[in-house]
From TrEMBL:
SUPFAM superfamilies documented for this protein: HAD-like
GO cellular component terms, A-Z: cytosol
InterPro entries: HAD-like_hydrolase_sf, HAD-like_sf, HAD-SF_hydro_IA, HAD_2, HAD_sf, PGP-like_dom2
Family matches, as Pfam families: HAD_2
GO biological process: DNA repair
UniProt keywords, alphabetically: Hydrolase
Membrane-crossing segments per the record: none
GO MF assignments: phosphoglycolate phosphatase activity
Name of the protein: HAD family hydrolase
Gene3D superfamilies: HAD superfamily/HAD-like, Putative phosphatase, domain 2
The organism of origin for this protein: Staphylococcus capitis
PANTHER family the record matches: PHOSPHOGLYCOLATE PHOSPHATASE (PTHR43434:SF1)
Length: 233
């Protein structure tokens, strides 16, 4: 294994509550902008209950593309451009929370010391990732950052990893991905990566990661080195 790719929120850092606020606000703005007869039903259909996001709902674990499909069904209209532009506006104005999950930063340094290349593959924007790297003073830990801008490819589309394969001579079977969502695991399957490791510090439950074909499921990304050591043997 040459490259280890980490999701950010829920994997490297504690799940950022500001994302939940964005999701709820996006749905609220949707229902303010497009005429929907029963807004309470629409909230439930999209996964918002009591101003909180249901973890395994579209708003909890779906990509923006998945959300747009659901928005279109709820409103009966094409919400694509509105959703992409509005979600970007909300993301650009959010105040992120960047708290490392205990032990993960030290684990990444150990992996680097052993010669692994380390990357981030996140649904956050470049601005959000830069804020994380600056606030935690950890830019030197990562060899590659793949973020998701308004019209970029999203996990689990394997094209999301094009920046890695276009810039480096590495085969997919020499890449591992670590994440807390089913989309992270599906990305590994779709891109034919060598190893997918699900962690339980974020959104998905163990059974959800298992159903998404995670090769290994661990409590936290701080235990990744042990799994890679076993994989080498």
């Amino acid at each position: 294994m040459e490259w280890i790719l980490f999701d950010k929120d829920g994997t490297l850092i504690e799940f950022d509550k500001s994302w939940e606020k964005i999701g709820v606000r996006l749905v609220d703005k949707l229902l303010e902008t497009f005429p929907v007869h029963d807004k309470e039903v629409a909230h439930r259909q999209l996964g918002i209950i009591d101003d909180k996001i249901v973890p395994d709902s579209i708003m909890g674990s779906g990509s923006l593309g998945d959300m747009i499909k659901s928005f279109n069904k709820v409103t009966g209209e094409d919400t694509s451009d509105w959703a992409r532009n509005t979600s970007q506006e909300l993301v650009d104005t959010r105040v992120p929370e960047n708290n490392w999950i205990e032990g993960v930063q030290e684990t990444i340094q150990e992996l680097r010391n052993e010669g692994y290349k380390i990357g981030i593959v996140t649904s956050d924007t470049k601005k959000g990732v830069d804020q994380f790297l600056e606030e935690t003073q950890s830019k030197e830990l990562f060899d590659l950052i793949i973020s998701t801008e308004t019209h970029a490819e999203e996990k689990p589309n394997p094209k999301v990893l094009n920046p890695l394969f276009d810039a480096y001579d590495v085969s997919p079977d020499q890449v591992a991905i670590i994440g807390d969502t089913t989309n992270d695991m599906k990305t590994a399957v779709n891109a034919k990566l060598g190893l997918s490791i699900g962690v339980l510090t974020g959104i998905a439950k163990r059974e959800e990661l298992h159903e998404a074909d995670a090769d290994v499921i661990i409590d936290s990304a701080k235990d990744v080195k042990q799994i890679l050591d076993q994989y080498k043997k």
